[in-house]
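Problem 12. The chain below contains 290 residues. Write out its predicted structure in token notation.
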Amino acid sequence: MTQSHQSFACLVAVDPETARITHASETCGTILGHDASDMLDANMRDLLGVELWHALRNAASNPAFGKSAIAVQALGERGESLNILAYPTGPLHVIEVLPKNPQEFGSTAPIDIAKASMAQLLPLKAGAEFASHLSTLLRHFTGSEHVLIWDRQAGDAAICTAESKRASRDSMLGAQSQWPALWPDDCGTIGLISDVQADPVSLLTASDPLVSEIDLTKALSSNPSPDLTARLQQLSMRSSILLRLARNGTPWAVVECQSSRARVPSSALLSLFDVMQPFLDAKLQLLHGA
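Solution.
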């Protein structure tokens, strides 16, 4: 069965022992400048450059490699124009490549945005007040029309307990969703639906791919749950960014930032979410206890 993913990115899987490319997306041609069929069985070092190859190997030495997708700090033209992430899957390493977009909050550095946000959120003592402030902050930073916070309930249920929205949007407070759709097994802390109107793209495999299927759950471009896509379409929304929060290591809440336009978040916004996520997890722990 052919695997697929969202079309805003391309995926390349490589054998770290030999540098042989075993999987490549149909979108490699537009993003990397090489057709997927030409990439299969090619040597990544020779085809994509020794700088990217060494950047991937450096990323693989990071202790966080394997827990989630981590940034690959590539040098040269590719590093300037592309946002590159990497994670392992079985014996292979996967790189996910997407174009860099202008950051959503001007020239301010993500770390400075994170510090200012933490300063506002840290003094809050009540869970409801914290959720309300968080949804307002993230709507401002992401430029979303509607930000919802989904709390996990008994079983597989989730309920919207806080929101920040444009006046023209109907309130979703009290609305229900399916928790597995918001937080699939083994997924990353950030989820993305770039465009509910776009068709997925296929992932091509070499004649000897080493593994029949690669793990796509840690990829930003992994296909979203059909339930989430259908709900966005019903609400006349086109894209969504999900930030998943845990309490004491247990999945607890999901912040969903909805927009009526197709979009891919900038690397700066992704960095902001990465910086804020551990703080938000710790704050949940303080507010709700063990």
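Discussion. The mean pLDDT is 91. Students who got a different answer should revisit the alignment rule from Section 12.3.
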